[in-house]
Design a protein that fits this description.
The complex is a heterodimer of chains A (about 80) and B (about 200). By secondary structure, chain A is mostly helical. Helix content of chain A is about 75%, strand content about 0%. Chain B has 3 helices and 11 strands. Classes of the chains: A mainly alpha (about 80), B mainly beta (about 200).
Chain lengths: ~80, ~200
Amino acid sequence: MTAEPTTPKEVWALIERADELIKYASNRDQQTAFAQARSTLERAIAAAKAVTGAGALEQQARTRLEDLARLEQGAGA
Amino acid sequence: MKLRRERDDVGGRVPPNQRLTRGWPVLHASPIPKFNPAVWTFRVWGEVESEYEVSWEEFRALPPLTVASDFHCVTGWSKLDNSWEGISFRDVASRAKPKPSARHVLIHAEYGYTANLPIDAVMDDDVLFAWSHDGEPLEPQHGGPLRLVVPKLYAWKSAKWVRGVRFMEDDERGYWEVRGYHNRADPWREERYSWQE
């Protein structure tokens, strides 16, 4: 099990990881990639709540979750 | 994507933790829009005395200029010695007569993409709306028919497929700025991410 983020930089790394999963979703099973991205963003949101100074990151992760939902809708996932 | 590491002897033109590229990587968040010059418009509005909207033909009739500048992407590549042709931002702005209260702009592009900038950053001589790169029409994957070019900031501020500018009294974060990227985006200060703010 990966350690939970303890700094804003580590929370951001989770958001970037989700972005990569979405970006390259078309190269693999898209629904699996989207599900992994969603789970990663949810983990980023939970971590941002616990990390001092990461409030903006929580909102950024939420915005990206909304993007992902639109993407899933468009992909018929 | 062809990246090439070179000696850091390019006159201090490569910001920290950037690497030179001879190619031109393509990165964007949306599909490439189709361009129809018959319906394309460019709008300037907000904190200005004279809002206006022009067609592609009218936009292309504005006095052009050519600017040589470097280009730095937040993902880590820098492309030097680009020759851009287009219309200076200052010229586009002056036709609308921004009010003294206009201190920020929000660039609007296809698919609702936006990028925010302080007005001081876009009024410099090297900022333009470009339709040509290195003497060729700007290719769609690089923002053609028209993109903003703000050489002094990371390239996401140089929005592709631009369709207008809104002048604003207060700052309003753009598309990437609400998704975790830095509000100012100065590559020399490595202002990459909003958590650094």
